[in-house]
Amino acid sequence: MSAAIAQIRRIMRTRVNLDIDVLRTFVTGMELGSFARAATRLGRSPSAISAQLRKLEDQIGLPLVQRSGRGLVLTEPGHALLSYAKRLVELNDDAVRAVRAPDLEGSVRLGLPADFAERWLPSVLHRFGKTYPRVKVEVHIEQSASLIERISHGTLDVALAWSSHPTSKHARQIADVDLSWVGPTSGTPARGGHSEPVLLVVADGPCAIRATATSLLDDAGIPWRIAVATPSLAGVWASVEAGFGITLRATMSVPAHLSVIDPTPAGLPHARTLPLFLHVADGQLHDAAEGLTEMAVDEALRLVRPQGAAVPRDP
After folding, report:
1. Do 158 and 288 fall within a single domain?
2. CA distance 181 to 273
3. CATH for 69
4. Nearest to 119 by CA among 201, 281, 233, 238
5. For 123-161, how does the pLDDT look when each residue is reduced to its tens digit (9 = 90+)?
6. Pairing of strands 171-184, 198-203
7. Percent above pLDDT 90 for the chain
8. Which domain does 293 fall in, by range?
């Protein structure tokens, strides 16, 4: 046996085959921001989740997370592995769906708020189209209240919305989304002075983010006035860029030509998070709608949770 063949056989023997199930736990924990939440989502006990994380570190041979205060953050190897793990889990799921339903036809009706349209929708539609090439997707970009109403009336199959509602029976919170005050890059102050009201650019009501903005200012005793109300997110961004006022929006949706405002020197209250809910229609979803639901959650969590952010040490 030649030395080259012997070397190849040694390499083959030392190859590590990562477990998709373990990778899914790792990805889910980081995306949900909690390994306890991952245990609930995956139907496992916290001790089983801890065992899977230890198994993954043993397979890699390097620490993947480290303590940071009362939480865990990714190490450099953890950062690198998380990126590959997401792709491996996604590829696994897409392969299973594609093989099970290669000729599936029909349509899926998807609703989402405007904040997700630009950065979230293209990746979801691209992934869905590769897996279900014969299924048509209807996309409705509307206010959360309208989306929930559509779900309750059965005119949407799946929707992301900023709020829940008693009429939406099949809803679950999937993330807490960071909000930020946003202004023009010119550095125009949010207020002319302490006695001057904050000029707000908002979406037409009812709007959960608009209500949050006014509530934050009211709680802080800061006067405000709506300078522009517009039905579209594009109108919000254009009005802020033109200097009509500032707005409160999801941090992940802020365009590059605008600036996130540091609230303390600007005399603004610190923004809080807003819960994001997944709503599905009553009854049993068909395979394509189930697939779109899983992809919607995957991509939403990927967008709203920065890679490597601290995760509570709860396994």
Report:
1. yes
2. 12
3. 1.10.10.10
4. 233
5. 888 888 888 888 889 999 998 989 999 998 889 998 999
6. unpaired
7. 30
8. 109-163+277-302
